[in-house]
Amino acid sequence: MTPAVAKDTMHQNPQPLTPTTTTTTTTTTTVAYAGGDERRGPLTMGQANMIRCILRDDPTHINIHDVWPVPEGTTPAAVTDALRALAVRHEGLRTTFPHPPGSAPVGQVVAAKGTFTVTVLDHTELPADPAGYAESVARAARAGRFALEREFPLRITLLTVAGQPAYVALAFSHAVADASAMAILREEFAELLAGKELPGLASLPPVDLAAVEASPAGLRKSEASLRYWERILRTGPQEMFAEPRGRRPGTDEEARQLTLRSRRGGRALAGAARRTGHPEATVLMAAWCALVAHRAGQDSCVTAVPSANRFHARVARSVTTTSQDALLHLDVRVPAFDALVSRTWGAVLNAYRHSQFDSVRLWEMIDRVTAERGSHFGRDVVFNDVSALPAPLLGTETQNGGDAEQELTWGPSQALPTRMLAFTYRTTPQLHISLWAAPSVFTPQEAEGFLSGLVLLLEAAAAGDVPMEALAEVTGIRPAERGPDWLRVDGCWVAPDAVREALGRAVGGLPVWVQVTEEPGPYGSAAGAADTDGTAGEASGAEPHLTAYIACGDTPLAPEEAHRALTGLIPAAGSGVLAPHRYVIVGNPPTEPDRSDAWRRLNTIDEGTGRSRQV
């Protein structure tokens, strides 16, 4: 899993639609540009984060795409002139990332001049669904890794009909653009074709943004973000959807897109915002977190918020990638919904303030916490609210739809690296949300019920305060079912039998017994108080601890070795696995191996914890 990475788009089968009713000719045009100064500098934190993924992930997963409609009557020359003007205007589009083979880039180079190519597909006529066809052409261009050190970071295809431009289909390197950057470019492209003069640039180009991030103030901000993330990773749930039928985070699944368009939802959200006195975005986030935590049976909701990075004016309209998650950890233990909305406001601002960080150091911290806590954090839930972007900038895919009071429609299957991903495209006049929910934890009926339940919660909140204990009754959404053997340990849902089975495999099949005891712990679960930012705080009192007994026989084994072996297995061990707090090494197993008192009576060879820091 990549918790530090914001995936701006979902990925589908990259094969383009075949225009069966038309013939095409293909030509390639080389466009030269010149303007600006050649510049060099270090990477921004967002660039470094995405380049890490670009070098590792399937390019169809990490590259992004967009489609720009071309107004009727526009000439091919006007299209190439507008594209040239964008390349000159934005340093990010003239940027490459030189690096020796086998290494990762550490700097960027902005060219003063260069060339790019435009592939022109000329048709006698476009297929019946021209926008869908253009979308498929753009998506197909995502295949193939961008050569970061030399390639122009846009792959451009101009779709024409008898020589007249209709659409520009583009694939972008995620090292230079994210969803917001694509929207900015789409807007400026349309204005250039309309003959408008673009205003001066108000946000920083990537080289200057990197300098701000490397300043003393920027480094302090990064350090604060790392501390914020570490506290959540050490104390928050490692899986939101920890349940018997769930897969481990890090296991991709094919999930179908489910889209809600609801005028009911739009009216309800506006009404709930008026009644509570909070912005619509805050109310929607509170409702989302309330239902995710309710469905998951958790005391808190941990969700990544990728679109949070552009709240500051210096990056609001910068054409670069700012893809770093804001990580929201919201404690939902409040009596009623209005109190949760109030808590959400502060928690969201706190998450936004801590969304700038050195991704390499973040991963080092994640690896360290994984080893010390004996856990594996999963980026289970992602909520990407792009409704603040003007509707025309959201692309053709988000604008097509009927005028029904409420409808749910299923789309194609897509690879899902999370358990639950939502894009909010509009909140008015319709609430327009697309959801991808992992089929291992959501049946199709449950996914539909979740979005319908969201609307029901908003309608109830518009009418009055909603008791949190009434969520199931109000929404029809039922919490996850777990057997009586599941319990909360260190704020995580854990199945001791699953821990025993995974530990047994990790130590080569040696006999293992896992005992549950109640001991004082530094972090609360149900008894924990809430900090002012809405996250779980420290609490006194007893909480479950796990002690693992391992009968090593003649096999030399130390607690640290057992812990290290289990930690290496946890990402693929199945749901509900967290390392024990203590390991006790004994000789041979007792004659009654399913009795804790029998294991406790054995002579201890060694004992200790593999955790280098108590949590």
Overview of this protein structure:
The chain has helices spanning 45-56, 59-62, 76-89, 130-140, 179-193, 206-213, 216-235, 263-276, 280-296, 313-316, 337-353, 359-373, 396-399, 444-463, 471-475, 496-506, 559-569, 596-600, and strands spanning 24-34, 39-42, 64-69, 95-96, 107-110, 113-123, 154-161, 164-172, 253-262, 300-305, 326-331, 381-385, 406-416, 420-426, 431-437, 487-489, 492-494, 512-520, 542-551, 582-586, 604-608. It has 615 residues and is α+β, with helices and mostly antiparallel strands. The chain is globular and about 85 Å long. It starts with 23 loop residues before the first strand and ends in a 7-residue tail after the last strand. Mean pLDDT is 87; it is low at 1-15 and 523-540.
